[in-house]
Amino acid sequence: MFDTHCHFDDERFDDDRESAWKRAEEAGVGAAVIPAISPDRWDRTLSCTREGARFAALGVHPQCLPAIDDRAIRDGLDRIASLRREHAWRVVAVGEVGFDHTIDLALASPERQERVFAWHAEVARALELPLIVHVLRAHDAALRALSRVKLPSPAGVIHSYSGPAELVGAYEKLGFYLSFAGSVTRPKARRPIAAARVVSPERLLIETDAPDQTPTGVAPSVTRCEPAHLALVANALATALGEDEPSLRARTTRNARALFKVGTVL
Ligand SMILES: [Zn+2]
After folding, report:
1. What is the pTM (predicted TM-score) of this model?
2. What is the DSSP secondary structure assignment for residue 215, as one 8-state letter?
3. What domains lie within the chain, and their CATH numbers?
């Protein structure tokens, strides 16, 4: 399996990162993308990659916008091309970036979020890398903004998709894949399941969003989500879609490898 969104650079993995990865491998996870959240942490993100298995995306998360000014964002984005040259296989996407209307909109207005997104899209196009996009309670604003900028091809992924099934087609038309996280494991997961059902077969991805979004089904004592929990997401999604689990695992892995252009592990 391919965990397309795992914040494996988070401090909550500092004590056991490699043993957590071993558990992930034992659960059938062969690869992951680690999306960065802020330029001052990009070196940390890059240091958590591992050749052939763990890759990085570089960007500025909308939830970090209140703490960073536009100048620092521009300076950061200016470094991506050289970091990509220097780190070659490590950098496979631009992000995490996006649209979030649950944060302090006085410091990160929708206009500012759109502006920052447009800068990321420019870098992604120049480097021919897909975008990792976060959209939370902002689907209308996101779709408006996404249709106003030139996107790379493929455009990227809408991670942990939380929107209605009706908007899936609009995102696909813009060139996006859609990724699903632990929300599909909830007993009353109607909305994400309805959305997953209408995603084109070759556009479906899975993720943990670890260390957040711990799926239903782990022991109650476990509060931190980790990449091994991807098996629970795959199982819930396969059941909901009426698909064999091995087939869903293989399909979503193929899709992720096509999007991030990383080779097949033998
Ligand atoms: Zn994230």
Report:
1. 0.97
2. P
3. 2-260 (3.20.20.140)
35 alpha carbon – ligand 1 mean position (Å): 6
How many Å lie between the centroid of ligand 1 and the Cα of residue 64?
11
Distance CA 131, CA 117 (A): 10
CB-based neighbours (< 5 A) of ligand 1, an ion: 96
Tokens of 266: 């033998």
Percent of the chain at pLDDT > 90 equals 97
At 27-48, the pLDDT tens digits run 999 999 999 999 999 999 999 9
Q: Give residue-wise pLDDT tens across range 174-184.
A: 999 999 999 99
Q: Tell me how far the alpha carbon of residue 160 lies from the centroid of ligand 1, in angstroms.
A: 8
Distance 82 CA to ligand 1 centre (A): 23
Half-sphere exposure of 263 (CA within 13 A, CB side): 6
CB proximity list for 15: less than 8 A, separation 6 or greater: none
Distance 96 CA to ligand 1 centre (A): 6
What is the CB-side half-sphere exposure of residue 47 using CA atoms within 13 A? Answer: 10
Q: How far is the CA of 209 from the centre of ligand 1 (A)?
A: 6
